[in-house]
Amino acid sequence: MSSRPKRFLARPWWTGAGPKNANQGRVILLAFGYIAVALFAKAAPPGKLVATSFGDANPSQPYIALHQPNIPGYTKDHFARPYLGDGLLGIRPNPNPLSQSETVAAGFVFSNPAGGFEMIAPAPYPLGTEIRFDGSTLLEDSKQVTIHSQTLDLQTGELVTEMSFTAASGANLDLKVTQFLVRSTPALMCQQIEINPSEDGEIEVIPEIQHEGIPGTVYRDQPPGPRTKIAQVLGIESDRGSKIGEAVLISQGNGIQSKSDGVYVVNLKRGVPEIFRTIAAVVTSAYHPDPELEAIRTASWGDMLGFDELRSQNAKAWHELWKSRIVIDGDDESQTALDAAFFYLHSSAHAALTTGVPPFGMSQWSDYAGHVFWDMDSWDLPAVVPANPAAARAMVLYRASGLKAAKSKAENFGFDGAMFPWEAGLDGSEATPSWAETGWAEQHIVPDVAVGAWEYYEATGDKETLRQAVWPIEREVAQWISSRGEFTARGFEIEHIMGPNEWVADVSNDSMVNLLCKMVLQDAIAAAHEMGVTPPPVWAQEEEAIYLPVDPIKHVIEPFSQDVPLLYYNEPLNRYEKVNLQDHPDAYTLGNPQFLIYHDPPIPEALYRNTWAYEETLREKRAPTPSVPGSVRSPGFAIPPFAACAAMFGDRQKAAELFHLAATEYVTGPFMISKEYRPYHDGAYITNEASLLLAAMYGFTGLRISGGDWRKHPVSLPAGWKRIEIERIWMHGRAYHLVAEQGKTLVLQPIEKLAGTASDSKKSAGHKVATAAH
């Protein structure tokens, strides 16, 4: 299909099961002060997103972790909070960022209260701060707090909140709170409070690791000894034995004095700002067996470097990433969306991340439970690797670390090799809710993982990761394919599977699945040769024989075999029913070949074009459902591939319309938080972000990841776009400057070399062309 109603069918426990109808809604984007211009050499840097109104919520109301409603269920007046992340940690600061705000840390998990399965847990907020002033307290007397603005600087990843706090006496404090997560040391986050008083006086500042509603048992809330120079420490253990440790240090000096009870006294002079700085470390047991002790060490390291050095390092890290910014000439709204997409995707990926990238990154814990889906391998990885190969490598290493669990799952299902789970937990084991059909049927995740791993290798030429991770993945998935299908009179067929359309189950020869398996077998053979290993002859036999259902009259790829019954989702009854396709023609899936557009699938061009053109006639007539890309009920990530297909096949106007739809209708609020579905009011759904970036970076430029020349197709930009430019894109361990102009040959100019990452050996130039008969 062209959407994922599993996002309905496997809804989180607090919403109840079953799809929801969705009415079309138009979102007004409030991106103030944001300018994008055409040429990279003259382009303004990534801008600032500014909020000046915050809905009707109490700006100081603490975030109560276990009472949080499901993210998409928030009402229209909900303020979609900004998202600061570094891949390992994420926070969604409240309008008053000193009050308890949503916090997530990679590797801290607990048991889903309803389903019992492993899920990521809400984490304590280490930047909480109480201020006592002239008989009033900031967090308790929230009506005396006024939030003036919040500004998210995309260029540096810093959030600045300006607010004022007025005591009952009338005295006033102007507060400017700056927060950022440190990409150079991803276990650290920093906060600076600039305090400007209306009169001389003394205030008390109390840093707090706020943990109201956080699941688990506190096992440490005091420093381990008198020599530990730490303001606060907290250790919590969940019901699954997962631990999180947090430590806070205060940079002292000037008029700041420490009391023994954790209170800091600040002497203020009228009109003279005072600075109060916090360095916090957050570590989980996925990274250290005693995370609270390691958090103390990490925070102390940060204190030794100093706040200013950490701030400088973080800005430099973002500056390096932004060299891979996609700059377009011709559509300012889309430029803004691409910048936001780049920022949030890279806020969710890091070379140090060992637990995989969930669909919402570290922006929230409630939706999809922090599990790792195909989103990471098929969407995030190819979008990340040209800008940050090391972060993409971390994704591949996570999958390799889950091979043991994947092999065990294959054994349980009676197959050989490795069977990666639809929703993966910390160690790679299946974590899908046990009632969700996707947990046993949506097996296209298995070749998805292998295609993503091979694309990493072809993009980088990283021989060490080939040996360590890529080859083991390719080998085990190829073995799974061998045991999963069987030879028939029509070829090598794969039965009883669910493709990307989760409204349709138990089909045979899903065309996207079979194409992916063909690609994997080609890749596994190439990987074996790279390793100096002779691949089993059966891999080539199966690759050649894989059956692709093709209508010989229409000359189009069919979504799956048409001659057997299937399970079709009955939305009103919230259940699957066995039907024949002739009785339910809407079960005919749209988008299987389109979803592979960024991955250069082995399809003859004429067949690909005919399939796209035929399905466009169906797509534009279908009633809106999540399985109709571009409809009012479609998820956002499904639309950019159709824009890329339209551009590649010559319909530049439709490409512009579809891309603009995905870029503007699937974001909310001034911080451009990405929504999975249009009617939602929150999310930070990074799969949408990755899909936008993939369309611009690959789909419109004609690039496809390859061991050879990436320039596979002519440049074809959406109508109105004149140019795409990227200052630096990494290919095969070398940096290039990219310029794609409509009607011209794409230019890749080498700008520097990076020793030790490029491969000198000859690699495969891409997937072979498939031939198929009905």
Summarize this, please?
The protein has 774 residues and is α+β, with helices and mostly antiparallel strands. Helices cover 27% and strands 22% of the residues.
Can you describe this structure?
By secondary structure, the chain is of the alpha+beta class. It folds into 2 domains: about 55-70 and about 90-320, Glycoside hydrolase, family 65, N-terminal domain (Beta-galactosidase, Chain A, domain 5); about 325-755, Alpha/alpha barrel (Glycosyltransferase). Helix content is about 25%, strand content about 20%. The chain contains 16 helices and 32 strands. Strands 1-9-10-11-12-19-16-15-14 form a 9-stranded antiparallel sheet. Strands 8-7-13-18-17 form a 5-stranded antiparallel sheet, with no helix packed on it. A hairpin with a 3-residue loop joins β2 and β3 (about 90). The protein is globular.
Range of helix content: 25-40%
Distance between the termini: 20 Å
Which fold name fills CATH's third level, the topology of the largest domain?
Glycosyltransferase
CATH class bucket of the largest domain:
Mainly Alpha
Strand content: 15-25%
Q: Give the strand order of the largest sheet, numbering strands 1, 2, ... along the chain.
A: 1-9-10-11-12-19-16-15-14
Mean pLDDT: 89
Please identify the structural class as seen in this structure.
alpha+beta
